[in-house]
Amino acid sequence: MNEKNILKRQHGLFVSVCFVVGFLVGTGVFFLPGRVLYEVGGNVPLGAAAWIIGGLMIAPCVYMFSVFAGKYEKIHGFVDYSEVIVGKKYGYLAGWFFAVMYQPAGYAIIAWITSGFTATVAGMSNTAENYLPFRFFITAFFMVATFFLNYFAPKTPVKLNVATTLARMIPLVLMGTVGVISGLITVEVNGTIDVGATVPGRPLSDPMNLNQSASLFAAISATAFAFNGWQAALAFNSEVKDSKRKFPIALMFGFGLIVIIYVLYFIGVTTASKEGALQMMQGGGANFAGGTHTAFQSVFGQAGGVLVGFMIISGLGILNACCLGMSRAMYSLGRRGLGPIPDRMTELDETTNVPNNSMVMAVGISFLWLFVIFANTNGWFGVFSFSLPDFYNYSFFALLIPIFICFAIREKNIHPVKRFLIPIIAAVCAGFMFTTYWLGSPIHAGVYTITFIVLALIGFVFYRLRSSDD
Hints:
By secondary structure, the protein is an all-alpha fold. It is built from 19 helices and no strands. Helix 12 crosses helix 13. The longest helix is centred in the middle third of the chain and has 36 residues, at 155-190.
């Protein structure tokens, strides 16, 4: 382990909670209600169940990482835990996954989704000839602007993360309270909260229908993207004061709070306006943004348009947080003497104490993922087109299972409940989330597997090169 160029401990509990919540509350919760509703054929209670099950499946995984955070700490939590528990090569694979797949891809996805809300606020229709080029340009602008902010003024993004975390909670909390009350009143009048599959969706019938089970699995896997982010917060474990005590608290409190808010928001936004719900179910950048706009206006009137503006702020806020996190990815590999040009990746700016070279490489990789998003949207990959958010969630849950199993095997000096029961439950839950992708779409899951293997093999080429140098 290279003991030079060490990042400073500078964050307390409040900032740590803001990191966790800030990474969690991004764009996913604003565009996924429509997809979840589509998957369950407009059945709001079943959609709410998908959000609850998704949260419950991920919660044991988060808890296990809070246990890891109290035991291990070096650089970049996820890599630390993978390395200590499973082994050096597996730790490298985890670090490579975060450096070239998870965080750069997430950066591009968040910017792309935010551009969809921006296009809607600008009054642009998704049928316009220049719609996709406009979104591509706006996405690239958001990515570059956020990069420059983090590169030249790194203290500002940390403060901005705290401020935007509070700002992006406003529409969630309002729709999760006022919207739910409004929806319940609608139920009282109409006697139902079933939107109805007016647009093409998965047809549902009786509770034992196999189609309903497949739909629920697909909806649960979709919620995983919205529950993403706590993993990225692990990159800051070594920058938190008294991290072995404070960071586990921040993880569990932040995640638990978000699960409750997400479920309430989903119920509120999908029952506030049937027209808005149907529009969200149609998918696409303009549709989910326009449907959300309609739902907010039905509850809050003209102020609803202002609240949609907060969603753009939310997107930019999580984009900023993502840039903060991914700048540590190649740095964490470089500190271990691994990955491409490790000596350059560990260099810290003398003034800002930020690994700028690592940040530059991460942003460069994110533009490659932006091309994948644009190509998928245009249908350039044909039958091989795939959902990028689903891909990296699928890969992440697969990586979790060996970590939990090895922890149960190797740890001997802790209570049996923490050593066996909870890790086994967490492994089963991660396995369940992983399996939902195969149950929801075997073809896409196959494409995800092949893509992950190819990228992993590229990563191990660099690993072997560094090992041969040693």
